[in-house]
Structure formats: structure tokens, C-alpha cells
Amino acid sequence: MSNKKSEVTQILQNIDSGNRSADLYPLVYDNLHNIAEKLYRRENKGHTLQPTILVNEAYMSLVDQDHIDWKGRSHFYAVGAQAIRRVLVHHARHKNAQKRGSGERKLDLEEALTYSVEKDEVILSLDEALEKLEEVHERQAKVVELKFFGGMKMQEIADELGVSIKTIEIDWRVAKAWLKKFMKSDI
């Protein structure tokens, strides 16, 4: 695994090479797919957006970004979390545009943070709440994004953001409470 991590970092540092996609994809696919599968774990069969499609769309948006100065593997996955979030939000908006006026029901925050294709409106609410949280406390919003959409562990998040794991744990607890309060009318 450590060899795979260093290979990813090396490829990202030499991203200008023409075959970056061919070299990088097999090294990051499993991790991105595991993140997507976690988001879909509690779902019934027959989703309109499968984990493989989510991974492919997110990956393509990552490698198409020539202006990013990749700082290594964890930076790639942090930006990957943003890409996954954008794909999910875009998909939810598209589905909601097709089925305007469907019935709403209240959900617990923890239940809402477990992604469900059936809960696209919750993803949109969460996205809006994260945008508001980012205005108040940018790092807490980033912690939620990296944990929820990126599937990163607390230590990985701490390393990526350059703070202690204790700080990340506090940010996670405070952010969850803030999101619960903000989304109370939606959940």
C-alpha cells in the first residue's frame, strides 16, 4: 500500500506527462470506488447513478484540471471529495428538476449524512448547509466534505489540513451540531 501511495504522489508530481490518466487511474480507482460504495451501501438495487459511474465522472473531472498544483496523494483525494460532491449535487439537482413537488419527510442528521439516492433533496440541503458553514467556519466545512464525500479518516483529514487530530475531532462534532441546527427545518 505504501508503494502505491508513493506511486500516486510521483505521478501527480509529474502530471504534465501525456499518459497521466492511464498511469494514475488503476492506482486510485479502488480507493475512489470504495468511497462511492460507502455512499451507496444502504441502497436498494436499481439506482440511476451507480458507484462506478460516480467514480468515473469524479475522476474525469480531476484529471481534466490542468491548473492544479498537486501536492500529493492526500491532496488528490481531498480534491476528489469535492469532485464527488459536485457530481452528487448535480445529479440530485437534475433528478429534482424532473420530479418537482415530491413529498418531504423529516430525517435524523446521522441518517441524512448516510447518502441515499432516494434522498437527493437531503444532498442539496447538505450542500447548501456546507456552503453556509463555509462562510462561518471554512475548516469545519472542509472536515465534513473530506469525511463525508471523500471518505477520509480523521488522521488523513488532520494531515491534509495541517492541524492536530484533536482539532479535527472537535471540528467534526461542532460541524455536525451546526449542520443539524441549520438543517433542522429540512430534516
Written description of the protein model:
The protein has one domain. Helix content is 71%, strand content 0%. It contains nine helices and no strands.
What is this entry, summarized?
With 187 residues, this protein is mainly α. It contains nine helices and no strands. It has helices at residues 2-13, 20-40, 51-63, 73-98, 109-112, 120-136, 138-149, 154-161, 165-183.
The amount of helix comes to over 70%
Q: Tell me the number of structural domains.
A: 1
Residue fraction in strands: under 5%
Encode the helix/strand succession as letters. HHHHHHHHH
Task: Return residue spans where pLDDT drops below 50 for at least 5 consecutive residues.
Answer: none
Q: What is the 3D form? A: globular
Average pLDDT taken over every residue: 77
Tell me the Rg in angstroms.
17 Å
